[in-house]
Amino acid sequence: MPAQAKADASAAPSRQPASSPLTERQEARRRRILHASAQLASRGGFDAVQMREVAESSQVALGTLYRYFPSKVHLLVATMQAQLEHLHGTLGRKPPTGDTAAERVAETLMRAFRALQREPHLADAMVRALTFADRSVSPEVDQVSRQTTAIVLDAMGLEHPTPEQVSAVRVIEHTWHSALITWLSGRASIAQVKIDIETVCRLIDLTAPEGQGTAPEGQK
């Protein structure tokens, strides 16, 4: 982890317990913080997200910011979860239209990829934060994973996936994340990313019990 990220983590006071539900005012403050983080990252990437600037932009005290997010890495991973949550809502309003679960998931993940492609500095900042994340950031990383899984399962049209399908989803998530990293580093084109995602999504149809894989009712 870079020295600045380590310094952020070591200097930060402990945040309020995760089990404590946020009040409406606290939730609004959290949303302002995440919005400020995304705005700064969009303009200048990982290095542009400085905790003092985030606090000033979101109009909260620096100590308050650290109670919500002990470090920049915590903040940016939470920012990614918020971005995925927003994407999930968008997908709900305009779901994928493929005939098979594999096609729908591939379409969904490419839509997510293109959304990140429009904000490359933000995408790079969030992915770097995920890469730097240590065990202290596990709750935030788990939230990102759960949100990604929910997006994929919704695209599949499943509420109760089999263990084999859950395993396939994990492999798909790993591939999507890896494809994002290779694209950000300039080692893969969008066309190659699309091929990789479509290829790995075939695991869904391979692991589907008989009768699954067609379009959900209402999309036919």
Can you walk through the features of this model?
By secondary structure, this protein is mainly α. It has a domain at 72-203: Orthogonal Bundle (Tetracycline Repressor, domain 2). 71% of the residues lie in helices and 0% in strands. The protein has 10 helices and no strands. α3 (51-58) packs across α4 and α9 (163-184) runs antiparallel to α10 (190-207). It starts with a helix and ends in a 13-residue tail after the last helix. 35% of the residues are buried.
Alpha-carbon Rg, integer: 18 Å
Secondary-structure arrangement, i.e. CATH architecture of the domain at 72-203: Orthogonal Bundle
Helix content class? over 70%
Q: What is CATH's topology name of the domain at 72-203?
A: Tetracycline Repressor, domain 2
Low-confidence regions: 1-19, 213-220
Shape: globular
CATH level 4 superfamily of the domain at 72-203? Tetracycline Repressor, domain 2
Element pattern in H and E: HHHHHHHHHH
Quote the average pLDDT: 87
Report the top-level CATH class of the domain at 72-203.
Answer: Mainly Alpha
Number of strands: 0
